[in-house]
Recover the amino acids of this structure.
């Protein structure tokens, strides 16, 4: 029974000395990736909002910046075009027309109206190292989004 205790002791020591520090470093790496994704997304969205348009080249540059983190991401773009309609009483009602990623990328250049709303949502599709270690330690498949950001706002300028 004494040898069984030593084997357990060696296994626990191995986990504490090697696996936990690697797990901690992988969590730190996730935080760095999250920060870079947030910064890249806010820069891209602010650029679109300030200029009043988005080109495919701008979008591809955004994707290249995201790829530099070493993860695979799902990106969803949304644009809400503001439409004001006057009813028979003379009152104006505001409606929004939705355009998604496919609609926006179907053209070489998508132009936006001032007052519309542009948003980008980015989440990881590949599993970061910290998620893989968690899966290994707990023997469970955890499919939570570790790297996720949403950023958007009103279009400030428009193409005339």
């Amino acid at each position: 029974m004494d040898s069984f205790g030593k084997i357990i002791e060696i296994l626990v020591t191995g986990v504490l000395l090697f696996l936990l520090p690697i797990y901690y470093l992988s969590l730190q790496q996730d935080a760095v990736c999250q920060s870079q994704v947030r910064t890249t997304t806010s820069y891209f969205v602010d650029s679109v909002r300030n200029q009043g348009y988005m080109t495919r080249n701008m979008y591809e540059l955004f994707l290249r910046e995201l790829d530099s983190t070493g993860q695979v991401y799902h990106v969803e773009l949304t644009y809400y075009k503001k439409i004001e309609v006057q009813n028979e009483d003379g009152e104006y009602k505001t409606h929004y027309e939705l355009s998604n990623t496919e609609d926006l990328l179907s053209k070489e250049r998508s132009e936006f109206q001032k007052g519309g709303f542009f948003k980008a949502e980015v989440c990881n599709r590949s599993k970061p190292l910290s998620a893989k270690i968690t899966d290994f330690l707990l023997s469970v498949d955890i499919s939570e989004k570790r790297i996720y950001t949403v950023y958007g706002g009103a279009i400030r300028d428009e193409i005339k």
About this structure: The two ends are 83 Å apart (CA to CA). The chain is about 50% helix and 30% strand.
